[in-house]
Design a protein that fits this description.
The chain is an alpha+beta fold. It has a domain at about 40-145: Immunoglobulin-like, CATH 2.60.40. It has three helices and nine strands, in the order αβββαββββββα. A hairpin with a 6-residue loop joins β6 and β7. The radius of gyration is 28 Å and the shape is globular.
């Protein structure tokens, strides 16, 4: 047998021996994963263009789910990289316009909602009517883990930061 063949056979034998000799004991426990909410729902939409100052999106979700969820929306302007996301509400790409939004139920069987994004001039004083194209749009519904009716915690002037801070025992 040649020296090269012997070396290959010996290497293969050592590799197999090391694979089968492992004990398979459990290792240390890894770090805890991120806390999260498994019930988050994301609705994704493709390209839309407007010159009327608003863009409409529809989605289906129960009224109870929507009423007890945080509703977030983000868009990707066609003039930006595909990884650029802007929040609604807020200033748009290059500060040319600002966005506002509202959503409301349009049907009950099935429960359907309209999410309307409004485009306004940066000052918010007029509708922005120049052509705007969004290549992607996302609506994210994040259900609350707990809902506490304000009446159940007493009357708090939520416009007074100090009153809110004091009530909840927040650090300064």
């Amino acid at each position: 047998m040649s020296r090269a063949k012997a070396l290959v056979l010996a290497s293969a034998f050592l590799l197999l021996a090391s694979l089968f000799s492992c004990s398979g004991e459990d290792g240390a426990t890894g770090p805890r994963g991120r806390d999260g909410n498994a019930n988050v729902v994301v609705f994704q939409y493709g390209t839309r263009t407007t010159t009327s100052g608003n863009i409409n999106y529809t989605f289906e979700a129960s009224q109870g789910f929507v009423d007890s969820s945080l509703v977030l929306a983000y868009y990707n302007p066609s003039t930006e990289a595909p990884t650029a996301w802007y929040p609604v509400p807020g200033l748009g790409s290059t500060g040319a316009y600002m966005t506002r939004s509202m959503w409301y139920q349009t049907g009950t069987d099935p429960s359907t909602y309209m999410y309307r994004a409004f485009l306004l001039t940066p000052s918010g004083s007029a509708t922005y009517t120049s052509s705007v194209t969004w290549t992607k749009f996302k609506i994210i519904l994040v259900p609350a883990s707990e809902i506490i009716p304000l009446a159940s915690i007493g009357l708090i002037d939520t416009n007074d930061y100090r009153a809110v801070r004091d009530y909840f025992g927040l650090a300064e």
